[in-house]
Amino acid sequence: MGDSPARQTPDHRLDSWKEIAAFFGRDERTVRRWEKERGLPAHRVPGGARSAVFAYTNELADWLKGRSQELDADDSTSEIDEHTIAEQIDEKSRSSNHHSRR
User: Which of 7, 23, 58, 60 could staple 3 via S-S, CB 3.0–4.6 A?
Assistant: First the structure.
C-alpha cells in the first residue's frame, strides 16, 4: 500500500518541521509561516530549543479542513501532493464550502 504512516495512524506524532511539512507536501518554511500567521497547531517542547516542535496528525487534519481553500489560494505555486490526506480534505471542503472569503 502507498499510504504514509501519518495516514495510517490518525493521531500519529510528527516530531520536526520536516515531518510536518512532509505531511502536507509543502516546504518547511511554508508550515512555519502557517503556524505564525494561520494558527497551525504545532506544539513546542517545554524547556527545549525554540525549534523543538511536534504536532499530531489528527490536529493537523482538523485544522486543514477549515483552511484548505484559503491555503491553496495563498500558495498557488505549491501544489498539495495528490496522495496526501490534504487532497481528500480539500475535495470535501470545496463541495461543502461554496462561499468565498474576504
Answer: 7
CA distances from 44 to 16, 24, 90, 97 (A): 10, 19, 27, 32
Amino acid at 90: D
Instruction: Compute the distance between CA of residue 46 and CA of residue 98 in angstroms, rounded to an integer.
Output: 40
From the options 1.10.10.10, 3.30.230.70, 2.130.10.10, 1.20.272.10, give the CATH code of 5-94. 1.10.10.10
**3-state SS, one letter per residue, for 30-83:** HHHHHHHHHCCCCEECCCCCCCCEEEEHHHHHHHHHCCHHHHHHHCCCCCCCCC
Tell whether pTM > 0.70: no
Q: Is 96 helix (H, G, I), strand (E, B) or coil?
A: helix
